Amino acid sequence: MGFKNRKRWHCLPGQPLTDIDKQVMFWEEKGKLVPTRELIKTPKQVEGIRKSGIINTGVLDEVEKHICAGMTTLEIDRICYNYCIEHGATPACLNYEGFPKSVCTSINEVVCHGIPKEEDVLKEGDIINVDFTTILDGYYADASRMFIIGKTTPEKEQLVRVAKECLEIGAEAAKPYSFVGDIGHAISKHAEKYHYGVVRDLCGHGVGLAFHEEPEVMHFGHRGTGMLLVPGMVFTIEPMINMGTWKVFIDADDELGWEVITGDELPSAQWEHTFLMTEHGVEVLTR
C-alpha cells in the first residue's frame, strides 16, 4: 500500500512528547499505517460512548427477554426502537442510507443487514443475529448478539459458539501497539479449524463520534498489517462466520439492496462488541 511517506500523526504544539507520540512516530517511520490523532478519543468522549453502550446493551437484553418462536422480526424492531427512545437515545440504523428500520435482524443464511418484516416469523431451530447501534448525545455504540430459537441442530449450535469464540479471540489479539491484521489473523485461524468461511466483504470499524470511522477491522489477514492500534481508539470487532463458503451476495428480492446472503445459502453467525483500546488491552463498552 506504500504508507512510507504518509505522515498522519501530529504532536500537540508546545507539548512534550508522550509515550503514545513516541510509539506512533516509531511505527510511522517504519512505514506503517498509523491513526490520526482525531481517532484517539478524549476521556469525555469515552465516557459518552460508554453511556451509549449501556443503553445499547439494554436494548439487546430487552430483546433477549422476549425473543421466541412465532415472533416476527418487525416485533423485534419495535422492542428495540421503544427501549432506545424511552432511554433518551436514537437508533442509528433508522433511515441510515435508506435503511428503513431501527435494527438489523439476520436469520440463518442472512449474514447481516436483514431488514425486519411482518412476514419474517421466527421458527423453532432458527438462529438470528440482532444488530443494534445507539446514538446518545451524539455518541455511538454498536453491538450484536446471536439468538437460538428453541432447540436447533448441533451444527448450528457449534456455528454460533465458534462465532462467539472468534470475537473473543479477536479481542484477545488486540493489544496496544499491535495491528488490525493481528485481529483478523487470530479470528481466521480459529474459524479454519472448523472449516468455516470468514466473510471478507464486510468488516468491523472505528466508532464513537460517527457510525463508521477508521480503521476498517478485517476479520482475516496477516499479523503486522493494517492500522496500528493505539490507546484511546474505539472500534468494533464483528466477525461474520459462515458454515460454508466465505463468499456472499445481495438478496435479489431485496429492492433496497441491504440483505447479505451466504454464497451457498448455508447458515452464518456473528457477534459484535464495541471496544476501547487501553494501555493494557481492550475494554468492552457493549455486551
UniProtKB/TrEMBL annotation:
Annotated family: Belongs to the peptidase M24A family. Methionine aminopeptidase type 1 subfamily.
Keywords: Aminopeptidase, Hydrolase, Metal-binding, Protease
Known partners and oligomeric status: Monomer.
Catalytic EC class: hydrolase
The protein, known as: Methionine aminopeptidase
Co-factor(s): Co(2+); Zn(2+); Mn(2+); Fe(2+)
SUPFAM superfamilies membership: Creatinase/aminopeptidase
E.C. code: 3.4.11.18
Catalytic activity: Release of N-terminal amino acids, preferentially methionine, from peptides and arylamides
Organism superkingdom: Bacteria
